[in-house]
Specification:
Layout: H1 7-20, H2 25-31, H3 34-56, H4 63-66
Helix pairs in contact: 1-3
Length: 70
């Protein structure tokens, strides 16, 4: 997965991978390929960084990232 992807695209990709492993961290860690694991963890890190920037006032809130469903 390219690092140039935006958060919405990363979210869709990460959620598809998570669904493939029943949203189980254990299954993801033990059954996913290294690329799938890296994609999910990269999304989580990027979203956390974005939320921290929003809290600090360095970024505007994004409706896709702040969506709490799923």
């Amino acid at each position: 997965m390219s690092q140039a992807l935006d958060l919405a695209t990363q979210r869709e990709h990460a959620m598809a991978i998570a669904a493939k492993y029943d949203h189980s961290h254990f299954k993801l860690q033990h059954e996913a390929t290294s690329e799938e694991l890296k994609a999910v963890l990269m999304y989580v890190a990027n979203e956390a960084n974005h939320k921290q920037r929003v809290i600090a006032g360095l970024d505007k809130a994004d409706t896709v990232v702040d969506k709490q469903s799923e």
